[in-house]
C-alpha cells in the first residue's frame, strides 16, 4: 500500500519546561529523526511544526500554531498526494518507533479505515497510526483547532496492532527522557 507520512512536531512541551522535544537526542539521534526514518518507505513525509534544518521533508504549520494534533493533521493533509492510499500519523517524541512499526501498521489496515498501535495497558496510541486517506479526510471536523484526536478518529473502524516492547513509549517528562537515554 502506498502511503505518505505526517509527523506532528509542534507542541509546547510544558512538562519538559518548553524544550524542543523533537530535537532531544535518544541513542545519539534526535527524536524527530527517529520518526522521519521510521517513514522511510513513504511517498512523501510532511512535518508539522517549526522548521528544523537537516531534514528532507515538506514543512508546514497549522494556521494557529499550538492548537493541537487535529489542526496539525489537517495542515499536513494539504500536502499529501491524492494518489497514495494511506497516511501514517506519528508524533515526533517516540523513541521506539521504527520502520517495522510503520510497516505493521500499514499492513494491518486491511478492510478497516485505519490501524493504531495499542500499548501494554491496552490504550490506543492515536499518534501512532495508519489511515486510509479518504477516511481520514472525511473524519476531519470543520473546526480542527483544539479538537480531540481520539474523538475525531475514534468513530472510524480501527484495527489494533499490539505494540512491541518500547514501541509505544513517548517522551513527556524528564523521567521519560532519562529512562530512554
Write the layout of secondary structure elements.
Elements: E1 3-8, E2 25-26, E3 29-30, H1 31-38, E4 45-48, E5 58-60, H2 69-77, E6 86-91, H3 99-108, E7 114-118, E8 124-132, H4 133-139, H5 149-154, E9 158-162, H6 174-180
Parallel strand pairs: 1-4, 1-6, 4-5, 7-9
Antiparallel strand pairs: 2-3, 6-8, 7-8
Overview of this structure, please?
There is one protein chain. By secondary structure, the protein is an alpha/beta fold. It has one domain (3-179): Spore Coat Polysaccharide Biosynthesis Protein SpsA, Chain A. The protein has helices spanning 31-38, 69-77, 99-108, 133-139, 149-154, 174-180; strands at residues 3-8, 25-26, 29-30, 45-48, 58-60, 86-91, 114-118, 124-132, 158-162. The strands form two sheets. Strands 5-4-1-6-8-7-9 form a seven-stranded mixed beta sheet, with helices on both faces. The protein has a two-stranded antiparallel sheet with strand order 2-3. Strand 2 (25-26) and strand 3 (29-30) form a beta hairpin. The longest helix is centred in the middle third of the chain and has 10 residues, at 99-108. It is globular, with a radius of gyration of 15 Å. The N and C termini lie far apart (34 Å). Residues 5-153 form the MobA-like NTP transferase domain. This is Molybdopterin-guanine dinucleotide biosynthesis protein MobA. GO terms for molecular function: nucleotidyltransferase activity. Pfam families: NTP_transf_3. Keywords: Transferase.
